Amino acid sequence: MLYASTRGNYGPLPVAEAIKLGIAPDGGLFVPTGRVMLSMEEIAAMASQNYQQRAVKILGPYLTGFTADEIRSSVNDAYNRASFDHPDIAPMAELDAKLSVLELWHGPTCAFKDMALQILPHLLVKSMEKTGENEGILILVATSGDTGKAALEGFKDVPHTAIMVFYPEKGVSEVQKTQMVTQEGSNVGVYAVRGNFDDTQNSVKAIFGDAAMQQAVAGRGFKFSSANSINWGRLVPQIVYYFSAYADLLARGRVQLGEAVNFVVPTGNFGNILAGFYARQMGLPVHRLVCAANENNVLTDFIASGTYNRNRDFKCTISPSMDILISSNLERLLYELTDFNASRVRQWMADLGEKGWYTVDDTTREQVQSIFWSDYADDAATMSSIKEIYRRYGYVVDTHTAVGLHVYNRYRQSTGDDRLTVVLSTASPFKFNASVARALLGEEQTMGLDEFALLQLLSDFSGLPVPSALSDLANRPVRHTTVVDRDQMPEAVLDFVAQRR
Q1: Structural domain of residue 103, as residue ranges?
Q2: Strand order in 136-142's β-sheet?
Q3: CATH number at residue 284
Q4: 147: in domain
Q5: Whose CA, among 71, 195, 316, 477, lies 20 to 30 Å from 378?
Q6: Residue 501 clears pLDDT 70, i.e. is over it
Q7: ω before 465 within 30° of 0 (cis)?
Q8: HSE toward the beta carbon, residue 440, CA cutoff 13 A
Q9: How many domains does the structure of the chain reveal?
Q10: Beta 136-142 vs 222-226: how paired, if at all?
C-alpha cells in the first residue's frame, strides 16, 4: 500500500515515509492509494478475538513494509494492562436493546486519543528505522485538550524524538491543562497560546509548511512530524475500534453477521468519524455515521448544505475538545468521495484559506449525505443529556459523550431509524467533572469547588472510582509555564530545539 497527498503534489510513497512526515510537504494529508476490503467471514472471525488480535488484522494491510512481528509487537506494546485499566481495551456498555456506548477512555489519559497515541510512537520509531532516518523527529501538536496529553504521554522519553504541544490558553478544562503542564519527560515541551484552537492549529500548520523553519530546525538536527490526526499513523489505529465494537456485538448475539448498525461520533476535527468512514469502506456493515457537534456546528451545516463556512463566531463550550471551526480531516473525505480528485480538493482548500468557505458540487454533497447525518447540542442540551442519561440508565457520561447521546435522540426522532446504534464515548466523565457534577448534583452542591475537589464529590455520588491518572493531579508539580502569542510560536520552536542539540 502506497500513500499520496490529497493536494496531488507529493507521493505516492511507502507508509513508513508517510508516517514519518506526518503532513505532506504540499500541505495535503496522506491517504492510501488503494482500498482494503474484508470479507464477512473475516469480520465474523473477529468475534472470538481480543482487541490486540483485531488490531493486527486491521492494521496489516495498511502497514505494508512492516513485518507481522513488528505490527504485533507495536500492538502489544500499546494495548496492555499496564496502559489500559480494562482488559477489553475498548469495552462496550449496553444501555438498552438498541443503544450501546463504546468506552474509548480506559487508557493513561482517560480520553479516546490514547487509542491511537499509545501505538503511534512505536510506528514512528519503526518508520524512522525503515527510512534510514538519522535526524531526530520533532513532533508538533496543536491540541484542543485531549490530544496534547495523550501525545505527551505516548512520546515522553522516546529515543530520537522530541515533542512540543501548543494549547489555547483559555480553551481547555482545568484537568486537561493540569495534565499537560505537569507532564514529565526530558524531551517534552508544553506551551499555552493566547488565542483559540483554530489560531493554534493554523499556526502549527504554517510552521510545518514554512521552508525556512524546516531548514532552521534541520540545522539543529530535527525534522518535523505530527501526532495530530493529520498523521495517517494516528488515524489508522482508530479504524480498529469500529471493527472491535461490531465484533463484540456479534459475540453477544446483539446483531447478526451483515446486519448494519449506526455509529454516533462526537467530533470536531473529523478524524474520529473519518476512521468510521474507512471502516465502512472496508466492508464493516455501517448504515449511518452520525456526526455529533457542539455549538461550533460547522460540520453540521456542511453535511446539511454542502457549504463549509468557518466565518462564524467561535464558541467556548463545556465540550472543549470539539471547539473547532477548521476540521482538518474533512479534506481526506472529500478526496475519497471525488475519486482522488486532487485539483478539486486543492481548490476547495484554497477557498477555505482565502475566503473562509467553500461549496462542494452536488454529487459530492449527495454522497456525503448518503453516509453521514449530523446535528448539534448547545451547552444547555448537553447538561440535560448528562442528567437524563443518568436518570434513565444510571450511567455517567462526560460532556462530549452527552453531545453524542443528545444527537442520537435527535437522529431517531428525525429519521425513525431504530436500528442498533453505538455511541462513541470519548472521555471519562471525571475528565470534565465540573460540568458533569453540576449537571448531576446542581449548582448549590458544586458552587465554589474546583475541579479537583469535584473529582471526589462526583466519585462519592456515582460510586465510581476516580481514575488513577487523575486522582493525584493536584499534587503534581507544574513543569511548563510558558505562554506565547501565536506569532511567537516559530520562535518557541527554535528555542526548544536549540536546547536539545
Answers
A1: 88-110+233-430
A2: 222-226, 136-142, 161-168, 188-194, 483-485
A3: 3.40.50.1100
A4: no
A5: 195
A6: no
A7: no
A8: 28
A9: 1
A10: parallel
